Structure formats: structure tokens, C-alpha cells
Amino acid sequence: MAEQTDDAGRGGSLTAVQSPEEAEGQRRFDAIIAEDSRIEPRDWMPEAYRKSLTRQMSQHAHSEIIGMQPEANWITRAPSLKRKSILMAKVQDEAGHGLYLYSATETLGTGRDTLNDQLLTGRAKYSSIFNYPARTWADMGAIGWLVDGAAIANQVPLCRASYGPYGRAMVRICKEESFHQRQGFEILLELSRGTEAQRTMAQDAINRFYAPALMMFGPSDTDSPNSQQSMAWNIKRFSNDDLRQRFVGMIVEQVKVLGLTLPDPELRFDEESGQWKHRDLDWAEFKRVVSGGGPCNAQRMARRREAHEEGAWVREAAAAYARRQQAEKEQVA
Ligand SMILES: [Fe+2]
Ligand SMILES: [Fe+2]
């Protein structure tokens, strides 16, 4: 999800003046990338690579954390105990994804406090999709099926990202995301087999989340200047459009099982180009929502700041505990 807002880093191999150590580091870095191997935290890496990854990974972490909100709103209103416990587990998984990703980002040298500060002060972005409201229970289905589904399509190739800690975090995250997608699909399936009102509610949720989910892959490659550098560094493996195509191909089949439809009269497979043709996406809306003008941006940020303040005592207690442990260790030594 992070690619859509990632406007970081160009350059890399073409640093102007390098010391002999840097030149050697660059040579090793280039060789590791060329053999499609992994860069680890202690390896030398170009500043632009470090910066670009820090931005992408932290935006990804922020998206996981903010992404908990639309669904957390429904935990108390889940229609049964079973649904409530599944939804709680799912939202908790997202918190875990945020934590793995913050930890992985910290290995690049930027501390958690700084990353958090960037989010709370609005300097860092997160995925635009979480700025849309979750209006009905069926939205839990549409979010799981479409939003987590798009996340999987985006993230499976990131398991092979050249930066070791990122790739390894993604492996575990993707396993959990596939459970999320299934639980969303299953909610929609049950509603689609229910009463007329339930079918209508399921269809309405799909209608609202279809276009924003397609936009999760980011603008077309021609409007995504950093994609190429990211691909040259083996962070990104497929272009935004390629990933969107795969996703569309997948949901076209799955929606048939639901007996529902995608809100896109223009959707068809074009034999000639081998591409899915879908309706035009509103990129002006995308830009507006990602930069703060969506229906729920203010609410999401206010809630996050509030949660951060409410959690101050936990951070203080953890720091005091760590200090005491350290002092006891020193005494023993
Ligand atoms: Fe997640
Ligand atoms: Fe998820």
C-alpha cells in the first residue's frame, strides 16, 4: 500500500563524490542487487535507498495502524459472538503488522518516536482507503475482501523485497492478510445468501469500496515517477498497473461466487491487449483524500492522537521498568 504515496528517492548509484569506503560499499551494494540477493541493516546502502525505504515502510506501518479504526468501530456492533471474536482477532493482527513494520523501519536508523511524530503531525501519509467511513456491517465484508485483497496483491511481491527485514516482515503479514480476505469474503457470502435487505447491504458495500480499492495500487505507472527506481532496487517487482490488473482478474471471478456485481459497466477483458479494461478512476479524488481531504481524515487523526495520549502511562511504565531492569543488571555485574 505504501507505493501509492511514496514520492521518495532517486539516484543511488550516481553519487557525485565518494570516499574509497563508500565506493567499495556502493560496489558491494550494486553486486547484491544485481544477483537479487538481500541487503541487511549493517550493510552499506545508498542514502537514497535508505530514505526511500524508510518512507515506504513507515507509511505502510502507519496504514496498518490507522487501518484498525474503520473496523474497530464495528467490534461492539458485530452481529454475533463469533463475528465479534473474528473481527477482534483481525484488528489485533493489523496492530501486529504495524509493530513488525515499525521495528523493521527502525533498523534503517530512524527511531519509533520520530516515525510516530511524523504521523501525528501529519507529515507522513498513510493509505487513502482508510479515510472512507465503514457505514454498515457489510462494510466489514467489503473491507476484508477488497481492501485486504488489494493489500495482498500489493504485498506478496514485497516478500521478495531486497531489504531483508522488510521482506521477512511481509512473509508473516501476507499469511495473516489471506485470512483477513477470506473472513471478509465469507461475511459477504453469508449476506448474499440472506434476506433481500442483506443482499442489498452487501452490494452497496461493494459499490462503495470498489473504486477506492482499485486506487490502492496508486496512479498509473506513467504518473508514478518513483516506480522505476524502486524496481531497479528490487523493492518493487511489478508496476502499479500490473498489480491492479491481477487484482481485477481475481475479483471478477470471486464476485460471481457471491452472486453480486462489481459497479463497473465498462469492465471487460480485452483479448487484443490481454488487459482488463475498467472504468476511469478519479485520481483527483485520490489526491484529495490522501492529502487530508477525505471524509474521515480529521476523525482518524484525532482518534490516533487521542490514543497516543491515552497510552502515555504505558510508555512511561515500560521505560521505568526498563531502567530498573538495567540498574539491577548493573548491580549484579
Ligand atoms: Fe495488515
Ligand atoms: Fe489485513
Automatic annotation (TrEMBL):
Transmembrane segments: none annotated. Coiled coil: none annotated. Residues 1-30 are annotated as: Disordered. Pfam families: PaaA_PaaC. InterPro entries: Aromatic_CoA_ox/epox, Ferritin-like, Ferritin-like_SF, PaaA, PaaA_PaaC. It comes from the Bacteria. This is 1,2-phenylacetyl-CoA epoxidase subunit PaaA. It comes from Citricoccus nitrophenolicus.
